[in-house]
Write a structure and sequence with these properties.
heterodimer, A: 472 residues, alpha/beta, seven-stranded mixed β-sheet, three-stranded antiparallel β-sheet, 16 helices, 15% strand, B: 124 residues, alpha+beta, five-stranded mixed β-sheet, globular, Cysteine desulfurase, mitosomal (chain A), transferase (chain A), metal-binding (chain A)
Chain lengths: 472, 124
C-alpha cells in the first residue's frame, strides 16, 4: 500500500496542469487509472489538492480519483487476445462475489441460481452459432476444445477409421494433436494451401478416404485472417459421412457462423478472442447426426460426460455475455473494423512501396491484417515500434525466431516470412490509433530501409537473386 | 425354466468376466427384463425410466444395425455410460423381435454407479 503522504504527493503532481500536459505529449495515448485514498475529515482538511480533483466517494469511504499516467502502447494484437468488454465484467461480478454456489449442487438455492446462470450462458453461446444449447460443452478454452475434438473422435472411432485430414496452416494445438495421433498409429493428411491461403476444394475432396474419421479445418486463420470455404467443406464432409471439425476461435462473434447451414459437426470457441474472459471456451458437439467423443478428462460426468469438472460459473457467464453482445453487435463491429482495416492498409500502402498483404484480399477477416515489408526485418520493426503492441506471428510462437510456418505454407520465402507484421484491429480500436500507427509504421519502415544495403541495391536496380553471396 | 418352452428367441449375455449366459426371450422383452428374470448382474438404477446409463450393453455390429435408431434421450444417457462404444445401447431400450433372435450383448466392465468394494447391485 502507498503511504498517505506519498499518495498525496502523487495527487499534487498529477493535478498540476503543466505536468499533465507534458505527460500527454510524451505518450502515444493517455490511460486513466484510479488511485484510491481513504477518506476522513482530518485528511480532507490537510489535503486541499484532493479537493481540487473533485473525487467520488464510494460506499466504503474510499475516494476514487482519476489521474493521468504515461500511456501504455496502442494495442493492435487482437488475434492474441482481446480486451474484456466492460459489459462482460458487469455480468460476471455477481458470480465472483455473492452467487458462489456450485452449479452442480442440486439440493439448495446456491446451486440452483448458478445452474440457471450457466444454462442461460449455454443458450447465449448456442444462439450465436445457431446450435441447440444441449450441444454446447464448456471447456477451458479453444486449445482444450481442439484437443477434445480431434483426440476424442479419433479414439472413439479408431476401430473402424484411422485417417484424419487437416491443413498445414492450422493452429499449433491442432497440428500437435494430429502429431500425437500419428504417433499412436493414425494416418494424417496435411493439406497444402494455395498462395492466397485457401485450400483447394478439389484436392480436399480427393484426400477423403473410406477410413477418414474427421476433417479439421479452421474457419479464420489466426496469422493471416483468411476465411476458408467452410460451407463447401461441410457439404463434402456430410456427403462422405465424415465428421467436420472447425477451429472457430478467430471466427465466432466476428463473422456469421451457423453450424447447421455449414454442416459443422464440432466447433471450438474461445472466450478471450471475442472480448470475454480468459480460461473459458466451448466446444459445439452435434447431437443429430450424433457425434461421439471419448472423453479426455475423467470425473463426475459433467457436461454430457464429455468434459468432467466443476463448471466455472463466473467465466461461463462472461462467455455467455460476450456471445450475447456479439450476436447483437457483430454487424456494426464488422462495418467499423472493415473501415479501420481499409484505412490502415491504404494508409501504409500509399506511403510505402513493396508492401505485400499476406492471404486473400476477398475471403478474409478485416480485423487481421498481415503485411510483409520487403527488405525490413520484422523483428527489427517490432522493436522500433515500441509504442504499438503488434506481433510477427501467433502468440504461441512469437518468442521463436523461426519464420512463420503459416507464411511458409503460402509459399513465401524466408525473407518475406521474416519481414511480416500482424495488425489486429478490434471493437475498441479507434481511428486516431490507426492514424498514429500508419505514421509510425511508415516512418520506421523508411528509416530501417535507409539503413539497409539490400534496399539500396534494389533501388539501384540490382537483382538480389543474381548475387553470389560469399559464405562466412 | 418351464416357461422357456414358450419363449421363441435366444439372447446371449457375456458378463464382464467373460462368462456366456444363454437366455430365452419373447417378443417385446427388453435386455433389462431378461437380466432381471435370469438374475444377471445388469444394473438398473432408474428402473428402466431412461434416466441413467447403468444398463449399458455393447451389441454386435450386425445386430446393432437391425435395431431402431436410439432416441436423443437414450443418446444423452449413453453419453454418460462407462466404456461407451459405437454399438452401445441401453438394455432397457432394446426390445426383442425376430430380427434380433440370437443377439449377443456384452456387459461393460463397470458402470457410472461406482463400486470399488466388490459389492454387487441388487434388483429392486
Amino acid at each position: 500500500m502507498l503511504s498517505r503522504q506519498l499518495q498525496r504527493n502523487i495527487l499534487k503532481v498529477a493535478a498540476a496542469p503543466s505536468v499533465r500536459l507534458s505527460l500527454a505529449k510524451q505518450a502515444p495515448r493517455v490511460v486513466l487509472f484510479s488511485l484510491r485514498t481513504f477518506s476522513n475529515t482530518a485528511q480532507k482538511q490537510n489535503a486541499s489538492t484532493v479537493e481540487t480533483l473533485t473525487p467520488n466517494s464510494d460506499s466504503l469511504g474510499f475516494e476514487t480519483t482519476a489521474i493521468e499516467k504515461p500511456g501504455r502502447p496502442i494495442y493492435l494484437d487482437m488475434q492474441a487476445t482481446s480486451p474484456m468488454d466492460p459489459r462482460v465484467l458487469d455480468a460476471m461480478l455477481p458470480y465472483l462475489t455473492d452467487l458462489y454456489g456450485n452449479p452442480h449442487s442440486r439440493t439448495h438455492q446456491y446451486g440452483w441460481e448458478t445452474e440457471r446462470a450457466v444454462e442461460e450462458a449455454r443458450e447465449q453461446v448456442a444462439k450465436l452459432i445457431g446450435a441447440d444449447p444441449k450441444e454446447i460443452i464448456f471447456t477451458s478454452g479453444a486449445t482444450e476444445a481442439n484437443n477434445l475434438s480431434l483426440k476424442g473422435v479419433a479414439h472413439f472411432y479408431k476401430g473402424k477409421k484411422k485417417h484424419i485430414i487437416t491443413t498445414q496452416i492450422e493452429h499449433k494445438c491442432v497440428l500437435e494433436s494430429c502429431r500425437v495421433l500419428q504417433e499412436e498409429g493414425f494416418d494424417v493428411t496435411y493439406l497444402p494451401v494455395q498462395p492466397n491461403g485457401l485450400i483447394d476444394i478439389k484436392q480436399f475432396e480427393e484426400a477423403i478416404r473410406p477410413d477418414t474419421s474427421i476433417v479439421s479445418i479452421m474457419s479464420v486463420n489466426n496469422e493471416i485472417g483468411v476465411i476458408q470455404p467452410i460451407e463447401e467443406i461441410g457439404k463434402i464432409c456430410r456427403k462422405n459421412k465424415v465428421f467436420f471439425h472447425t477451429d472457430a476461435a478467430q471466427a465466432v462473434g466476428k463473422i456469421p457462423m451457423d453450424v447447421n447451414a455449414m454442416n459443422i459437426d464440432l466447433m471450438s470457441i474461445s472466450g478471450h478472442k471475442l472480448y470475454g474472459p480468459k480460461g473459458i471456451g466451448a466446444i459445439y458437439v452435434r447431437r443429430r447426426p450424433r457425434v461421439r467423443l471419448e472423453a479426455v478428462q475423467s470425473g463426475g460426468g459433467q457436461e454430457r460426460g464429455i468434459r468432467s469438472g466443476t463448471v466455472p460459473t463466473p467465466l461461463v457467464v462472461g462467455l455467455g455475455a460476450a456471445c450475447k453482445i456479439a450476436t447483437e453487435e457483430m454487424e456494426y463491429d464488422d462495418q467499423r473494423i472493415s473501415r479501420l482495416s481499409k484505412r490502415l492498409i491504404d494508409g501504409i500502402q500509399s506511403k510505402v512501396e513493396q508492401v505485400v498483404r499476406n492471404g486473400d484480399d476477398v475471403h478474409t477477416y478485416p480485423g487481421c491484417v498481415n503485411l510483409s515489408f520487403s527488405y525490413v526485418e520484422g523483428e527489427s520493426l517490432l522493436m522500433a515500434l515500441k509504442e504499438i503492441a503488434l506481433s510477427s506471428g501467433s502468440a504461441c510462437t512469437s518468442a521463436s525466431l523461426e519464420p512463420s510456418y503459416v507464411l511458409r505454407a503460402l509459399g513465401a520465402d524466408d525473407e518475406m516470412a521474416h519481414s511480416s507484421i500482424r495488425f489486429g484491429i478490434g471493437r475498441f480500436t479507434t481511428e486516431a490509433e490507426i492514424d498514429y500507427v500508419i505514421n509510425h509504421v511508415v516512418g520506421h519502415v523508411n528509416k530501417l530501409r535507409d539503413m539497409s544495403p539490400l534496399w539500396e541495391m534494389v533501388q539501384e536496380g540490382i537483382d538480389l537473386k543474381s548475387i553470389q553471396w560469399s559464405q562466412h | 425354466m418351464f416357461f422357456d418352452l414358450y419363449r421363441p428367441y435366444t439372447v446371449h449375455f457375456i458378463t464382464p468376466e467373460g462368462e456366456k449366459i444363454d437366455v430365452k426371450a419373447t417378443e417385446g422383452d427388453t435386455m433389462l427384463d431378461l437380466a432381471q428374470r435370469y438374475d444377471i448382474e445388469l444394473e438398473c438404477a432408474c428402473e428402466g425410466s431412461l434416466a441413467c446409463s447403468t444398463c449399458h450393453v455393447i451389441c454386435e455390429q450386425e445386430y446393432y444395425d437391425k435395431m431402431e435408431e436410439p432416441t436423443d434421450e437414450e443418446n444423452d444417457m449413453l453419453d454418460l455410460a462407462f466404456g461407451l462404444t459405437d454399438t452401445s445401447r441401453l438394455g432397457c431400450q432394446i426390445a426383442m423381435n425376430k430380427d434380433l433372435d440370437g443377439l449377443t450383448v456384452k456387459m461393460p466392465s463397470a458402470t457410472r454407479n461406482m463400486r470399488v468394494d466388490g459389492s454387487k447391485p441388487t434388483h429392486h
